[in-house]
Amino acid sequence: MTLPQRFLRELEEYLRDHRNQAHRVWHHLHGMERNFLLRSDLQDAFADLVAESDQGLSASPIARLIGWCQEAALNDAWIYLALRTRVARWNYLRIHVDTMAPEPIDVSVFLHFKEQLADGCCDDEWALEIDLEPFSREFYKLHEAHSIGKGVEFLNRRLSSRLFEDLGKGDRRLLQFLRVHRWRRQQLMLSEQITDMHELRHALRLAGDLLEASAAQTPWSELSGPLRALGFEPGWGNRASRIRQTMQLLQNILEAPDPENIEQFLARVPMIFSVAILSPHGWFGQADVLGRPDTGGQVVYILDQVRALEKEMLSRIADQGLEIEPQIRVITRLIPEAEGTSCDQRSEAIAGTHHARILRVPFRDGDGSVLPHWISRFDIWPYLERFTVDCERELLAELGGRPDLIIGNYSDGNLVASLLSRRLRVTQCNIAHALEKTKYLYSDLYWRANEAQYHFSCQFTADLIAMNAADFIITSTYQEIAGTAESAGQYEAHGAFTMPGLYRVVHGIDVFDPKFNIVSPGADPEVYFPPSDTERRHLHLLDEIERLVLGGETGEDIRGALTEPDKPLLFSMARLDRIKNITGLVRWYAESPELRTSANLLLVSGHVDPSRSDDAEEREQIELMHQLMDHHQLDGQVRWIGRHLEKDLAGELYRFVADQRGAFVQPALFEAFGLTVIEAMSTGLPTFATCFGGPMEIIENGVSGFHIDPNHGTAAADKLADFFACCREAPNYWVQISNGALHRVESRYTWARYAERLMTLSRIYGFWKYVTDLERAETHRYLEMLYSLQFRQLAKTLRKD
């Protein structure tokens, strides 16, 4: 997409005719003495100029330019601008300070200029450029921003109309697809007896006559003889009425392919009986792990996901008339030095399921010896290739064959899923949870400065490979993909970036690719429900919670005792790292007399004793917490609990805070989704959450909760204090926001909806991959080269053995 010619002419004319005004703007930006300016910097600077003296600036082409600009890079002679004119549509422009001549440029030129500014010695004309666009030029792409995240609907519309166009090729592929389904040695759907589409149509008509004459509840067992004689195998349904509906859907597709019929038909096809879920890093377990380094929402997400998926799989298999036990394996790392957790057990049954287990596979050093201790998610890259091979062997032995679907989680799990799905030729789904590049400012540009601690060279390369290798990607929100009208999304930020001295990405991931789908998770309804549901409440835990929250006990895992326990509680629960911004929340609270008067602050986060943490960043945050509490004398108003709470206790704690007419706050600098936000809202707790990331989409501001800007702590504290003041003046206000939160979650964020959608997506992408060219063989070959020549070499440099 290029800048409109009319705008360029208007800009040229303005810069020529109002040279002094333009120079005033450029001079002001240069006066900030920074080579790189973000959107907020530019807008604040421009607003200051307009407030000082508008002189037509606010209505000028420069105002539009600043409104579009996401980033500026400048030196004494040039200003380079990255312009986001619409959601996910980018242009690049440079203006010479002396000539005032605007010039559209390629993304490569913009990135090269950034490299020179960031690293003066980096002027490599032959730097490696990664460009995946040529491999998808002929591929179907979305065009409208509002369609982003609706990939499967788009594919169904585009491909269904072309299914039978290619001289019978579509017929043959559809017939082959119906015959390919098996469970071990049991043939499903169609037998080899039906050899062409004419025979299939004829058999469907005869089967229709048979089923019409049968009672609706007649089971498959009584119909299997005559249906098998026609070429139909089990899998069409468990009773006559369902079998007939499934066959009618197929007849409708054969008559005139329709996206809705295709989706409904594929949802009934017996395709998925086993699922492998990859999550290598952290302490993956079911008890005593939450709050440990690298261990939080992702573990909760996956365990809840597994329970919901198994229920959905069991329901579908029963509807298909099959007697098959679905199998789910969550594959993670085995940690011999397990510190009292179950992370040293090879296999562990997942509570609340019948056929799902955690399968742990160890990391191995170059000599094959097992790595005994936990290591940070930023240090695991050298171990993942061997881990993939070991996982393949263990998984095939566990399942007795290949899984039907592989789901990756986070950067490491997505890379392993990419390698494993390629080796086993299985449909692959990716879930990012959080992409580190957007969490750490300029982490790509100044990657060398962060390399010793974070190894972003490996992580960003792994993300590029996994994103492009996946058959489909699910996200929790639209913002995760494409942001808002004002700011770029997490995936969108991987479209173009540079890592000076390593490579520059000119076309990385395209958010208009139909592989993206929004599938929002929920909170476990057995744990997170409103306080009014007294029959399900764990009232026996209330005494323990009162002691935990309001008691006078302090020690190595608790600091602070509330001197005015009757005040409402302002509650937050998260890992204690910089991005979660718990120390920021404490600072807001400490510096707001109104908020300190209105509520006590309850924190469940990290450790209180820094010696108990293995994570350098967490230890730093612990020390900062103690400094803040000492400096502001908070021990009578802040209760800091450094314990890992089990789910039932955590659920009842949310309700306890709600009983006190309190509120939940999620102050993160950025949050990809925000499971704690959903948990809090599910219990009817009024919730304040960051405006950066998923919570912006989850919460309807002022209706089902409130947005806060973590970069403006005073304003956030004022908003919190105002809420408690409103509740004192009008007690029904708390109930109004609480009811809004409950309604929002019930209407959009449940695990049942999630599981149904994920299973349907898996079938649809698997189908189109089989009957069309969704395989993307050329892209995979390019990614294999990137993996071998870049990622493997980078990972090798991290090995300590």
Automatic annotation (TrEMBL):
<feature type="domain" description="Glycosyl transferase family 1">
    <location>
        <begin position="561"/>
        <end position="726"/>
    </location>
</feature>
<keyword id="KW-0808">Transferase</keyword>
<dbReference type="InterPro" id="IPR056736">
    <property type="entry name" value="SUS_EPBD"/>
</dbReference>
<dbReference type="InterPro" id="IPR056735">
    <property type="entry name" value="SUS_N"/>
</dbReference>
<feature type="domain" description="Sucrose synthase EPBD">
    <location>
        <begin position="150"/>
        <end position="238"/>
    </location>
</feature>
<feature type="domain" description="Sucrose synthase N-terminal">
    <location>
        <begin position="9"/>
        <end position="115"/>
    </location>
</feature>
<dbReference type="GO" id="GO:0005985">
    <property type="term" value="P:sucrose metabolic process"/>
</dbReference>
<comment type="similarity">
    <text>Belongs to the glycosyltransferase 1 family.</text>
</comment>
<dbReference type="InterPro" id="IPR012820">
    <property type="entry name" value="Sucrose_synthase_pln/cyn"/>
</dbReference>
<dbReference type="InterPro" id="IPR001296">
    <property type="entry name" value="Glyco_trans_1"/>
</dbReference>
<protein>
    <recommendedName>
        <fullName>Sucrose synthase</fullName>
        <ecNumber>2.4.1.13</ecNumber>
    </recommendedName>
</protein>
<dbReference type="Pfam" id="PF00534">
    <property type="entry name" value="Glycos_transf_1"/>
</dbReference>
<dbReference type="Pfam" id="PF00862">
    <property type="entry name" value="GT-B_Sucrose_synth"/>
</dbReference>
<dbReference type="InterPro" id="IPR000368">
    <property type="entry name" value="Sucrose_synth_GT-B1"/>
</dbReference>
<dbReference type="Pfam" id="PF24861">
    <property type="entry name" value="SUS_N"/>
</dbReference>
<keyword id="KW-0328">Glycosyltransferase</keyword>
<dbReference type="GO" id="GO:0016157">
    <property type="term" value="F:sucrose synthase activity"/>
</dbReference>
<feature type="domain" description="Sucrose synthase first GT-B">
    <location>
        <begin position="261"/>
        <end position="549"/>
    </location>
</feature>
<dbReference type="Pfam" id="PF24862">
    <property type="entry name" value="SUS_EPBD"/>
</dbReference>
